[in-house]
Write a structure and sequence with these properties.
homodimer; 360 residues; alpha/beta; Rossmann fold; Dihydrodipicolinate Reductase, domain 2; 2 domains; 6-stranded parallel beta sheet
Chain lengths: 360, 360
């Protein structure tokens, strides 16, 4: 029996929507159904350039997408400052919600979004694609293995890319009225999510932002970092920046094992992804080398991680639509924890690098 | 013409002295000549177990090694608290000095050592072996290349190992009267050295220790970390611990390039060592992967890094002995900078994680 096809509407023609349109096409249980832009011409161009079927609806507003009764779900890649308005309206119109990160400017706004999703019975998921790669599940097996990894002690995450002059001048991610969280919201989101993921989503007790964040003239963060501290002594650090060469590291160190990867957000290649693990690493006699050596593991995937994300989201939506299941709250919880820590880091920066408690 | 053979005396029978004895044997311009221990039996056992020639001198005290006129240079792997006493005495006895790290408990003690070396015309070098691996020079070429690496923006270094219960109870590195700097002195030394090395030994303006260091009952650091901050905005972090699986990372990120290695202190294999670099990393169309991909570089070495260290030290000593050259001050300068930053991190921990200026 063919799977339920979830019909997607897309709000806006952001660059990332091109990638997600392809992912919707690739996912076996989803299809491109509508796109809306403030300019209907732009929407039409987007639809024709991104594999929308000839029957797809092209709208000159976001509202029109939400008013289309045949749209099951919307993907919202709008600037962060617009999330609360459009996400809430989408939920009210009973559209299931795949929302770009950062999910909101702050936790209070995000709670408004989640309340709207819950009261309208719609599924929420943020678009953190790497969560859905089979590599992620494989790495979780390692981190959960008390024999191979032991007890988590420290994590380091780094996500940087070198924005070009046009980006630094014009991109929404450097505009205080659009993505006020700047690099912290855009790529720090991934660092924080990766750290929480390694920690099995146990929230840190406190964060302390690193000194020396870089701001643009409008006060938007271009580069920053933080340490995160747990009650049991676990510690994490991250660094995110628009001003350095593209780098995407996660290192997790436990009492017995170590995990390394260098492409955690976007794997180097689409059809496979690797990570390195080591367990009870030690030295040869006279410390002339290591024994055992770390080992590399490669995980193949038929579908890219973004299509797997769309497939999982659509599966949940299908369960609600066809079988009357309740929305899965897990994804909103993970988003909320990420946003909580992100805002604590921002608060620490604003308070002159004082420790800030992470209060759920 | 055969190279000048530098005759080494070793003070004490520390475990690390076994490795360095082998290195002295391997270096073409050095030879094992004497070993002294508070127990002459222990010294004799050490000499016979570690390749000393039958003619080697075995002494029942450190003084006796220093009093032997045929000893050119001494390797001093004694506990840190004994460094100033024995290093100064060695210099006064005109013995060139290869000193284990951390070089001293603080900069003031180290300055006493250096003054003794300078006034007695002896060569100083600390035993940070990886500085002498040809991989290090190869990585320096990358970091110095404005086209491939650009301007340095951030560094992260991590050195941890999982000490066994016996180490945590009995090793000199957890004893306040022997190696009071604990994990910070023992392995944090390498982290700090690697960060300074990446920064071409430009000192940071300040450091801020990370919260949550772990101490043993005697108050010795078992785990800690810090951020380092430069005037131009460069930032570095490190984490060192006796309580986590063996991990040895350096990541350096510049505006144009990224360097990764995971075995910076002790290469995975003795005869070759690798590192990964990337330049102007970016994504494929639709961000389905990376282009270009990072590349792996492997550097072969005929001699292990410890023997290369001994060879370089002995070359400098030979120049002083045979050609009347002045001692090379570079190595003492690098040691002093490392010690300066190390003590600033310790001061930040002691001051409740306040920023501490690094004052040369």
């Amino acid at each position: 029996m063919a799977e339920t096809q979830i019909r997607f509407g897309i709000l806006g023609c952001a660059d990332i929507a091109r990638k997600v349109s392809r992912a919707i096409t690739l996912a076996p249980n989803a299809s491109l159904y509508a796109v809306g832009s403030r300019s209907i011409h732009k929407a039409a161009r987007f639809a024709s350039a991104n594999g929308f079927p000839p029957s797809a609806k092209v709208y000159g507003s976001y509202e029109a997408v939400l008013d289309d009764p045949d749209v099951d779900a919307v993907y919202v890649p709008l600037p962060t400052s617009l999330h609360v308005r459009w996400a809430v309206l989408a939920a009210q119109k009973k559209k299931h919600l795949l929302l770009e990160k950062p999910v909101a400017l702050n936790v209070s706004e995000f709670d408004t979004i989640i309340e709207a999703c819950e009261s309208n019975g719609v599924q929420f998921m943020d678009a953190t694609m790497w969560m859905h790669h089979p590599r992620t599940a494989k790495m979780r097996e390692f981190l959960s293995d008390s024999q191979r990894f032991g007890q988590l002690k420290s994590v380091h995450s780094c996500f940087t890319f070198c924005a070009d002059p046009d980006f630094l001048k014009n991109d929404i991610r450097v505009k205080p009225d659009l993505d006020a969280l700047g690099a912290l919201g855009d790529i720090g989101w991934y660092c924080i999510r990766s750290i929480l993921w390694v920690a099995d989503f146990e929230l840190p007790e406190s964060v302390v932002a690193l000194r020396g964040p870089v701001f643009n003239e409008a006060g938007v963060i271009l580069s920053c970092g933080s340490s995160l501290h747990w009650e049991d002594g676990k510690v994490a650090t991250f660094h995110c920046s628009f001003l350095s060469n593209l780098t995407m590291d996660v290192t997790a160190v436990g009492t017995k094992g170590t995990l390394h990867l260098h492409d955690f957000v976007i794997p180097f290649e689409e059809s496979k992804a690797s990570f390195s693990v080591a367990t009870e690493s030690g030295f040869t006699e006279l410390v002339t080398g290591w024994a055992p050596l770390p080992s590399e593991h490669t995980v193949m995937t038929d579908l890219p991680q973004d299509a797997l994300m769309v497939r999982e989201f659509s599966r949940l939506v299908g369960g609600i639509k066809k079988s009357g299941l309740k929305p899965e709250k897990k994804w909103a919880n993970l988003s909320r924890k990420t946003q909580l820590v992100l805002n604590a880091v921002k608060a620490s920066i604003d308070k002159g690098f004082e420790p800030v408690k992470v209060v759920s």
